[in-house]
Automatic annotation (TrEMBL):
The UniProt record lists the keyword Metal-binding: yes
Species annotation: Kingdonia uniflora
This protein's UniProt keywords: Metal-binding
Protein name: PP2A regulatory subunit B'' EF-hand domain-containing protein
Occurrences of domain PP2A regulatory subunit B'' EF-hand (ranges): 69-158
Record-linked SUPFAM superfamilies: EF-hand
Sample GO molecular function, one term: protein phosphatase regulator activity
GO cellular component, one term: protein phosphatase type 2A complex
Entry-linked InterPro entries: EF-hand-dom_pair (IPR011992), EF-hand_13 (IPR041534)
Length: 291
């Protein structure tokens, strides 16, 4: 699993505990070791640090990790030593551990490509919701303000990964990935305007697609003119599918803005109204079982 309640463990530290690793009292090491469970996040943190069990225990004590709340512990362990933020790469060990140990993902053991795509999608979803500035970095404040840790705890406790709706659901990943694969007809992991216009049975207007590719609502990560990569598509689809979230509301607001300043583009607003109404009707038909 990826997280446990080690932050709340009842562990006392001798007041005279030395700070140097070679002077850490053996009894303290034993107490800290009791925090580790086979798949708990403490064990994962040790893996992230590329250290032995004992050296990680030393690190845990020397860095006064006992005094930190669980969000600060996770942030401190996962980030690079010279960084004051988390990057997407910092989350990869967590996803590797999740894929290796979660019973709800056992069926992926023989499909490394889908493991990789699932991990990417989870990370993209995390940054879509928490990285509101689009910087590619997560600060400690952003980590604390979000609900990622709660979702990690839920994934730890729930054997059916699809019940962990926030970030980790395999079914959510599968829907996103299949839609991208369907639009990416040449399977180069890039889609253009002509591909995106087919999204949702042509639910988008050409004006909306033009605005999306102008990168007004969100900058693309593809770094290729006129091309959207998989991460860009995930950001678009999350905005399109759940219009009640704060990132989605901001996305559609910016789509309707004129010169990126205010909501006074009547044509674009009309297009968005059509898109939202059409999407709503399609979902009603699907829920009712209509053809």
């Amino acid at each position: 699993m990826i997280i446990s309640t080690c932050a709340g463990a009842d562990i006392s530290i001798p007041p005279d505990c030395a700070l140097r690793a070679d002077e850490v009292d053996s009894s303290v090491k034993l107490q800290v070791s009791k925090v580790f469970d086979p798949f708990g996040w403490c064990n994962l943190a040790r893996i992230c640090a590329h250290s032995s069990r004992d050296s990680f225990v030393d690190y845990w004590v020397n860095q006064s990790m006992f005094t930190m709340d669980i969000a600060t512990q996770i942030f401190t362990i996962l980030k690079q030593p010279d960084h004051k933020y988390l990057t997407q790469d910092d989350f990869k060990p967590i996803l590797r551990e999740l894929l290796a140990t979660h019973p709800g993902l056992d069926f992926l053991q023989g499909t490394p490509e889908f493991q990789e795509r699932y991990a990417e999608t989870v990370i993209y979803r995390i940054f879509y919701h928490l990285d509101r500035t689009g910087s590619g970095h997560l600060s400690l404040r952003e980590l604390k303000r979000g609900n990622l840790i709660t979702a990690m705890q839920h994934a730890d406790e729930e054997e059916d990964i699809n019940k962990v709706l926030r970030y980790f659901s395999y079914e959510h990943f599968y829907v996103i990935y299949c839609k991208f694969w369907e639009l990416d007809t040449d399977h180069d992991f890039l889609i253009d305007k002509e591909n995106l216009i087919k999204y949702g049975n042509h639910a988008l207007t050409y004006r909306i697609v033009d605005r999306i590719f102008s990168q007004v609502p969100r900058k693309f990560r593809s770094n290729l003119e006129g091309k959207m990569n998989y991460e860009d598509f995930v950001n678009f689809m999350l905005s399109e599918e759940d219009k009640s979230s704060a990132p989605s509301l901001e996305y559609w607001y910016l789509l309707a803005s004129y010169n990126n300043k205010s909501l006074d583009s009547i044509s674009c607003i009309a297009d968005i109204t059509i898109v939202l109404s059409y999407s709503h009707c399609i979902r009603l038909e699907q829920n009712a079982g209509w053809n």
